[in-house]
Design a protein that fits this description.
The chain is of the alpha+beta class and 248 residues long. It has nine helices and seven strands, in the order αααααααααβββββββ.
Length: 248
Amino acid sequence: MTNIRQEPWKNSLKLPRRLRWAEPSTVSANRRFGTLLLLAAGAAALVLGRGGRARAAAPQASVSALVTRADSELAAHPGQALLDYERARLLAPRVPEVAAGLARARAAAGLPPAAPGPIARAVQWLSPDEWSRLALAALALAALSATAAAWRWRRRWTLPAAAGALGLALASGGLAWRTAPRPADAVVVAANAVARIAPFAQAEAAFVVPEGSRVTIQSAHQGFARIDGSRGVGWVPDSAVERIIPGR
């Protein structure tokens, strides 16, 4: 058996254990950045979570109240009923009574049935608030994974997890923005509302807006609202349209 003699000079080149485990400045900077990223995500989640709970604590109307009122208005005022169903759908997109009520209201108003495609149905399966919460949870997961990667903890899966969670957060945030109603979105609640070319009663009529039609309010002037709908752009009385998001 051959003895291997170790030269003393090799042992002298070995660094002390404390120095061998010292980390480069770049690694320390990455760890500090990852920790700050996690703290920032936690603070954002806390602020947005409190805002969501505050909005949910004082809802303007419950889903059951909206559906009950819409059912009572369906025969005489299908436009107002459709507006209430639209508001209920924002709060509870998966409730079968809301979807059925929307179909009945469109039929009562003489509007064609809505036929969303499979992608649109999948997107509408969650409410805008639910998409926002999913985006926030994915952002927190991305920050946690990035922090774990910065501390070099199982980087084989933390880096892909951070990238995937960030992609999910971006997609969910985009869908929340896409499904949320705009402040200018409105429903025509008057029967046979006449849209005119100018904001006064003696102006020439441009077209008739069917009751229950969904339109966009572009501006307002002296008791008239300028709307943009499937039949064009025109001015109707303020009382003929009502915004889906009240109080805007």
